[in-house]
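Task: encode each sequence below as structure tokens.

Item 1
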Amino acid sequence: MTKSAAKRIIILSDGTGETAAQMAKAAMVQFGNQNVYFTRYKNVRHEAQIEAICDDAAINLDLLVYTIVSPQLRAFLLNRAREKTIPCVDLLGPILVGLASYFGYEPKSIAGLLHDVNDSYFERIAAMEYTIAHDDGKNLTGLEKADVVILGISRTSKTPLSMYLSHQGWRVANIPLIQGFEVPKEIHGIDQRRVIGLTIDVQELSTIRRARLERLGQNQGGEYADPEKVNQEIEYANEIFRRNRRWPIFNVTGKALEETASEIIKLMASRRLTPPHTLEHLGQLDVKPKQE
């Protein structure tokens, strides 16, 4: 049996074309072992580009599969395809029209927005990976890449706060302050504007530590939750903070995690140290970065 000639499917997009390519390949699964191959044209945003692609597709009447947000460019492509009898499938146009009808207003029609969303998503994933790797002082390498470095004694919410910020795209390192040990020298080698300290009321911290010991089924009579010992640790941390007055101190006593996180983000925004991919969150926090 003679093998049929390969057919070509042209993927055309004003962005990366990844969405169109995945959808086309997913659909091809329903058509068995067809002899097809794909050609992808990315960042198609001008009529001249469409003209050239249609001329190419017209030679063998290749199938055009496209995702274009601009209604003008979609109309131009459809007209050229009809003139040249090129088969085509518009993957994005119908859903944009349907959504516009449903919501009662027209879409933004800005090319490449999905790519920007994906970039933001991957930045957040990278931030979470960084934060996990730099939790509780277990990794001091790459500290200069942190958006925020949090210092505090045990059970001052360093890890939960770090994880909360990382889910919003902040790379956070948190380092415990342990009585009798010096602050790691690596901290003094980074941008001091990014270093913050956490403090807390003695009684609240003692209560938190007793609750932790209870959950772990351990003896609550030791030094870990003893108010006097807790006070010594807090004073030790406060003395470090007094020697490093450039580090802002946040008192977490009685505060929800979100409240402290919001205060930190506002501070960093005022210092123009907000990671670019997190700027969309500033509106939710009623924060505006300073203008140059």
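Item 2
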Amino acid sequence: MDETYIKVKGHWYYLYRAVDKTGQTIDFLLTEQRDEEAALRFLKKAIRRHGVPEKITIDGSAANEAAIKRYNAEHGTAIAIRKVKYLNNIVEQDHRGVKRVTRPMLGFKAFGAAQDT
């Protein structure tokens, strides 16, 4: 689970993404904020569609960690948090594909187009 940023209508937005251990995209969320609420909203969306994972690997983002801990507390789950820099490389490398698509067009012209892509 990680986030990156993309430009939409000249403004920066955050693209939350989750991939499995083989690098396949599980879910994504495009949002204006990068905070605990946005991370929790993304986590709930991914879990609603794909079920509760045993463990989640994240980078050093405090918002992601707080969202997972809050979800565990609210729902009585025991999702393990792994904050290991090198285990997060799969999702970090996957951001490269998103950047490759958006760079030539200098960002998206509409929020809906960014979500669709």
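Check on item 2: The beta strands are 2-8, 11-19, 25-31, 55-57, 80-82. DSSP finds four helices and five strands in the chain.
End of task.
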